[in-house]
Design a protein that fits this description.
The complex is a heterodimer of chains A (397) and B (294).
Chain A (H helix, E strand, L loop, with lengths): L15 H23 L1 H4 L10 H13 L2 H11 L9 H22 L20 H31 L5 H37 L17 H27 L6 H28 L11 H22 L1 H4 L2 H25 L14 H24 L7 H5 L1
Helix pairs in contact in A: 1-13, 3-5, 3-12, 3-13, 4-5, 4-7, 4-8, 5-6, 5-13, 6-7, 7-8, 8-9, 8-12, 9-10, 10-12
Chain B lengths: L1 H19 L17 E6 L8 H9 L29 E5 L8 E5 L8 H5 L5 E3 L5 E3 L9 H5 L6 E2 L9 E2 L5 H6 L5 H5 L5 E5 H14 L19 E4 L18 H11 L4 H23 L1
Parallel strand pairs in B: 1-9
Antiparallel strand pairs in B: 1-8, 2-3, 4-5, 6-7
Helix pairs in contact in B: 1-9
The chains are: A mainly alpha (397), B alpha+beta (294).
Chain lengths: 397, 294
């Protein structure tokens, strides 16, 4: 399943953009250090009313949702046999592997006893009733699966740099051949594990019906999360590909991205229809017309985050134009991010809340620092590893 | 091939169904009998707001405490207070619409029959002891605070300022005294007005019903906790509906039922995940074979 159409960029790393990235990381590291030295209370606005905030709603829940490009593109290419989209696999896989890694880092900052994070692995502590247990175990296994799926890319690079007749090179090649033969087992497992924990992530807040806004609480929340993860996967691939093309001054890969947008449109429309149907059947509509911040967040999610991308991706003329295509993908990514924040933060209404929860500067700084670190490692990976496809110009040269 | 896309969408739909359709094998455990569970009946109509229970609670749990004389009457305190990491129980005063003395009511962990916190806990650090109390084991806890999200009574609190070994803090039902030694919890022992009655849950319900029947003018005809959130080990009698005295109005369903039925349907003998794996593998195999023919 290896393809030699991808190669390292060797783009210069000393740019102003990278400097800014490092600065944001430093700020995040400062507040992260404060949290670990002085406790969660020193750095966050979390309290007994709002035990979960930005770090769970954004770093963890949004991170997992936006890493869905990994399993959706793997399913599309390997399981449903759409080989022509092969070039999007590696960047999507990199995003997923990195995304989940940073999800775990973000989670560690939020866990009061981060050093005990391994406890759910002990059978003596298993709780089969806990949704979080299901999410935790699935994410842990899936992260390992992602690393296995990513390993051939690293091995391929070693093959390129090691001396052809050396023992190391032969070992690497042998390992890669062996891995290639069983990789399909991991790819299917990755898709199954993703379906399981993407949906379970939605099941988390189902346990708090009395504390949740009816705009988002539904017993079908797991299905909402699964459908939105599937719907956002390909738009996320499009979003990143266009960002990378712009950042590295390459021509956008419209020949791949336009058909991806066409495939994504019905998936988004399906989720939108399901969301509306569920809302109508539960008779929760009225809450959307009560003037409130929650209603505003709901409409933003529905109109900007779902209806807009359906319109753009579903319109043959619009999706062919890189600007519109990017707008559609960005709206969808934003919409699903907003949905996760809505479900975990906006919808949560503790019975004895005093003031609404607003993330502290430190919480924002740590989240931004994690995003910046993600960008840095992504940048390093595409610079030194064969991730991004060879550009049009190179192919025709 | 257009067929592929249809397959794609169809099987994604299947995956979704596996993830969310309730099945008849919902609640895995049949409702356990909680008649013998230790419980407390709080007859809040007798409470005078002296807050001696707050003092005794801190003593019993070895928490930083004030002198007992420094506990001013609840009526003089800014309303309504909540338990926090330094105090497991509070007494609040609510204005009496009929005039006269305010209505006092005590808050602490309700020790649910099917606790949402225990259902939520990723490591089983919170559990319903067969004797009644919902107990917490800090040695297992990873500090995720999902218990706090799950609790419909907003009871568990957290040591947010502790950097290394923060604990979830909530009423222990004086576990050592009640379960191990068979004695009354500290708050019950100290209550000078006899508002708190310690006993088996079925007896307490029976007793509460008799009190209402004997003095119907004194009580609002409802035992709070009999059914709320699936039932609780602590039960309340009051002159007014508890939701007017700072308690949440709750459905007679344990919140864990909503999540557990989905979870147990998805993982029933691991069949749905394995079926999805096989299905996807089959589709992959068909498509690979097709690719070879091209």
């Amino acid at each position: 399943m290896s393809s030699h159409a991808a190669k390292p960029l060797f783009h210069p790393l000393r740019t102003w953009g990278m400097l800014l990235t490092l600065a944001v990381m430093a700020l995040g590291a400062f507040f992260g250090a404060r949290r670990f030295l002085h406790g969660i209370g020193s750095t966050t606005n979390l309290n007994d009313q709002y035990p979960w905030g930005l770090w769970i709603g954004f770093d963890v829940a949004t991170g997992v949702a936006l890493a869905a490009g990994g399993f959706t593109s793997a399913a599309l290419v390997y399981i449903f046999g759409k080989e022509r989209f092969h070039a999007v696999i590696r960047p999507a896989l990199l995003t997923a592997a990195l995304g989940y890694t940073f999800v775990v880092l973000g989670l560690l900052a939020d866990l009061g006893r981060y050093w005990a994070v391994w406890h759910p692995m002990l059978p003596s502590m298993w709780n089969g009733n806990s949704v979080l247990f299901e999410v935790g175990i699935c994410v842990m296994i899936y992260l390992s699966v992602l690393y296995v799926e990513f390993a051939p890319i690293v091995l391929e690079r070693f093959e390129q740099v090691l001396s052809p007749r050396g023992l190391a090179r032969r070992a690497v090649s042998g390992l890669k051949r062996g891995l290639d033969r069983v990789l399909f087992l991991f790819i299917i497992a990755g898709v199954v594990l993703s379906c399981l924990h993407q949906s379970s992530l939605g099941n988390l807040m189902v346990i708090a019906p009395s504390k949740m806004s009816p705009l988002w609480w539904t017993p079908l929340l797991p299905l909402h999360f699964l459908m939105s993860a599937i719907a956002v996967g390909l738009p996320m691939v499009i979003f990143e590909s266009l960002l990378a093309s712009r950042g590295f001054r390459r021509a956008p890969e419209m020949h791949l991205l336009v058909p991806l947008a066409r495939l994504a449109a019905p998936l988004i429309a399906l989720y939108l229809a399901f969301k509306l149907g569920d809302l109508i059947l539960r008779e929760a509509w009225s809450a959307a017309f009560v003037p409130s911040g929650a209603a505003l967040a709901f409409w933003a999610e529905l109109l900007v985050g779902l209806a807009l991308p359906v319109l753009i991706f579903g319109h043959p003329g619009l999706r062919r134009r890189p600007g519109w295509l990017f707008a559609g993908a960005a709206a969808m990514v934003l919409g699903v991010a907003l949905n996760r924040i809505n479900v975990f933060i906006i919808a949560y209404r503790p019975p004895y809340a005093e003031l609404p929860y607003v993330p502290s500067f430190g919480e924002w700084a740590v989240s931004a620092g994690l995003v910046a670190a993600f960008v840095l490692v992504y940048r390093l990976a595409v610079t030194y590893l064969p991730v991004l496809p060879t550009s049009e110009e190179e192919r025709h040269a | 091939m257009p067929q592929d896309r249809r397959e794609f969408i169809k099987s994604l739909g299947l995956a979704g169904l596996g993830g969310a359709l309730p099945s008849s094998a919902l609640a895995s455990q049949s409702a356990a009998n909680h008649d013998e569970d230790l419980g407390v009946l709080v007859d809040s109509t007798f409470c005078v707001g002296c807050r001696k229970c707050e003092w005794a609670c801190r003593e019993s749990n070895k928490m930083a405490n004030l002198a007992i004389e420094d506990y001013a009457n609840a009526a003089t305190l800014p309303a309504p207070r909540r338990p926090d990491a330094g105090l497991h129980t509070v007494v609040n005063a609510y204005p009496n619409p009929a005039g006269g003395d305010p209505r006092f009511v005590k808050f602490q962990c309700m020790h649910c029959l099917e606790p949402a916190c225990a259902s939520a806990c990723i490591v089983g650090a919170l559990r319903k002891d067969p004797a009644g109390p919902v107990s917490y084991d800090a040695g297992k806890c990873i500090g995720c605070r999902y218990c706090m999200v799950a609790c419909p009574f907003q009871i568990p609190t957290y040591e947010y300022d502790e950097p290394l070994v923060p604990r979830v803090m909530k009423c222990t039902f004086c576990f050592e005294q009640t379960v191990t030694a068979g004695a009354r919890p500290a708050c019950v022992s100290i209550c000078p007005e006899g508002c708190l009655i310690f006993g088996g849950r079925a007896d307490l319900l029976d007793y509460a019903r008799r009190r209402i029947a004997k003095d119907p003018d004194r009580y609002h005809d409802h035992i709070y906790g009999e059914h709320e959130a699936g039932g609780t080990s602590w039960l309340y009698l009051a002159a007014a509906p508890l939701p007017t005295l700072g308690f949440p109005a709750l459905e007679p369903v344990a919140p864990g039922h909503y999540t557990e039925r989905v979870q147990h349907a998805v993982f029933k003998q691991f069949f749905p995940p394995l079926a999805l794996y096989t299905l996807l593998g089959g589709i992959m195999w068909l498509n690979r074979r097709g690719a070879g023919d091209e």
